[in-house]
Amino acid sequence: MDVAGLATANPVWVGSSELTMTLDGITACVDAGAGAVVAKSVNESAAAREQLAIADYAFVSAAGEVRSPGSAGLGDGLLNRSGLAQVDLDDWLAMLASAVSHGAARGCPVIGSITLGEPAGAARIGHALASVVPAVELNIGAPHGREARAVRQLTEVDGVAEAVRAVRAAVEVPLFVKLPGQASDVVALARAARSAGADAVGLVGRYPGFLPDLDGGSVLGSWGAWSSPGCLPMSLYWVGKAFQRLDVPVIGTNGARTAKDVLRFLAAGARAVEVVTALWIGGPAVLRELADGVAGIRDDFIGSALAGTREYADVPPLPSPAWLPYTARWMSSGR
């Protein structure tokens, strides 16, 4: 599978997280069958690194039960608070060089990642990363950017263009830009990123989250970032719209837990899909199951769901109102 000139073993990628913060973590994902691995994000801010010390994770079942990582199920949502890698840049580059070498021997590129602090700092780090990795991901959609002062989440076209343009000028390898999902027009952000030099866009970042525990406090004791299988249709909405309206490769993220989920991302227009929470729950072995589940997919499958998808105004009247059986059942229940 080729994404903006980057050849990958398959379309199942591992997204940036604490799971890809060490050489052991990255090589475990490579060896388990990942198509590509995105290393944990870094930026220029010491405060962003310090925030990792307060990282916390809560899995939430569909019934609202809060569970520890060891007892989580594949259908659970994840509410978390996170930070960036606590490492000096020179040490990080040395680790990445080893990871890249390990991945290259297995057809699995290892991608460097920056979570935006300031555009100038991101450009400096991007230039350094590009000396050792085959591609760089610029994350300007991190939900923690709404809470943590050390990282930023950009939801306006001008801000996206400025940040991407700065990093593009410093990076000669493919540049992937990860965008938020809660902007008023994510396609406009993707268009701005593409015009400023992005080779591909990642859609979409996780959403801000908050969950009271009903005992006078809240889960995690703070706000956080949220992802769940229920986010899948929301992510696919923007993937499909971007595929339909823009000439830019799309990397899907936020909501894929199973091979069927990955296939839905591909059918909506993604060329690759980043997974993280599925690995928190099932470990690296999940990657082989996902990769096997999408084996043999051809290029003509990408975006195939859009062929029969209409705008509301173009949907023909249904033979009978779809709401009729629901209202009839509601009436018969005596409500």
UniProtKB/TrEMBL annotation:
Source domain of life: Bacteria
Names of required cofactors: FMN
Q: Which residues form the Dihydroorotate dehydrogenase catalytic domain?
A: 69-294
Question: A Pfam family in this protein?
Answer: DHO_dh
Pathway where it operates: Pyrimidine metabolism; UMP biosynthesis via de novo pathway
UniProt key word Flavoprotein? yes
Instruction: Tell me the protein's name.
Output: Dihydroorotate dehydrogenase
